[in-house]
Amino acid sequence: MAQVVIRPPKARPGDRIAVLSPSFAAAGAYPAVHEQAMRRLAEVTGLVPVEFPTTRQVGAPAAARAADINAAFADPSIRAILAVVGGEDQITVIPHLDADCARADPKPFLGYSDNTNLHHWLWSLGIASFYGGSSQVHLGPGPSLDDVHARSLHAALVGGEQLDVTDPGESEDVGFDWGDPRALGEFGEREATEPWSWYGPARSVTGPSWGGCIEVMEWILTAGRGPGSPDALAGGVLLLETSEELLPARNVGWIVRSLGERGILRAVDAVLVARPPVSDHVRRPSAEERRRLRDEQRDVVAEVLGRYNPDAVVCVGVPFGHTRPQWILPHGGIITVDGAAHRVRADYT
């Protein structure tokens, strides 16, 4: 993980933050949620949101979306970048990006899901970022921001402190449809969380993180854009989470197995696996079935990780990724995974 040497400086209250749509321009499709998100972003961080030409342009070409990313890095008045939401075609944006712009003025970048593409691109340039954050999912909907999201958002953008990653005690897979007026003032259906599951030795690991949404990681590795050698991840913390596509547990296991065959699982010293979504607007299994689906994914991932790296400290169920409340976590930054104290601590410097 030696190539990640730059942790971009924090923004200051009054600075400008670019709000971009590198994937789906949900801000244009559902402007009411987006505009509420912009007000809340300013209130929580003290930053001034700035939109770019494709922020609200649904169906913008990949080159145009890349031009906005390049422009945000090139503009010295922009001190941070937040993605509106994920999507499924950001992999086509990456070839149009200007590495020299990002290297010349590194800035905190926040996003998740399809934005795994941008996180891995920045990591390849030696620039750390923050996995999580979405104006359309975590800032705009509902009566307010979740506390854990607000604290990690502030820490990632302006605070820079260290925080214990804790369980908020409740979780939702999906909120109201963004076209539904209730999305502006109500959370989705929430349920109590289960205790996190721990595997591996009772030791503490502190190291830089790397990973993201496993479906997107599969695409990135297929395109030949992964780390040149698993040795680059040695001693690090692997982040794994699954998307709203609701892959069956066996498919998740197959992807994780491929990471093992590539040498990635053996290289890292710790793994954080997110609480997975198991329902959406169309598919809402019973509470018992949802629990079973989460348990199935936990068990298959834990089995594969144990087969390839029994010495890794593994924690399953952490609230980052595609469920809400969501913790924003360092990507390329430092995370401590303590298998003895059953504690996770993130460094947002």
Question: Explain this structure to me?
Answer:
The model has no long low-confidence stretch (mean pLDDT 97). Helix content is 32%, strand content 20%. The protein starts with 15 loop residues before the first strand and ends with a strand. It has eleven helices and 16 strands. Helix 9 packs parallel to helix 11. The strands form three sheets. The chain has an eight-stranded mixed beta sheet. It has a six-stranded mixed beta sheet with strand order 2-1-3-4-5-14, with helices on both faces. It has a two-stranded antiparallel sheet with strand order 7-8. It is α/β, with parallel strands linked by helices and 349 residues long. The chain has helices at residues 26-29, 31-45, 62-74, 99-104, 116-124, 135-139, 147-159, 214-222, 249-261, 264-267, 287-308, and strands at residues 16-20, 48-51, 78-83, 109-111, 129-131, 162-164, 170-171, 191-192, 197-199, 204-213, 237-241, 270-274, 313-318, 329-331, 334-338, 343-347. Helix 8 links the parallel strand 10 (204-213) and strand 11 (237-241).
Structural key phrases:
349 residues; alpha/beta; six-stranded mixed beta sheet
Shape, principal axes of CA atoms: globular
Task: Estimate the mean pLDDT confidence.
Answer: 97
Number of strands: 16
Number of helices: 11
Low-confidence stretches: none
User: What helical percentage do the residues reach?
Assistant: 25-40%
Largest sheet: 8 strands, mixed
| Strand percent estimate | 15-25%
- Strand order across the biggest sheet? 6-16-15-10-11-12-13-9
The separation of the N and C termini measures 17 Å
The helix/strand order is EHHEHEHEHEHHEEEEEHEHHEHEEEE
Q: Which class do the helix and strand fractions yield? A: alpha/beta
Cα-based radius of gyration, to the nearest Å? 19 Å
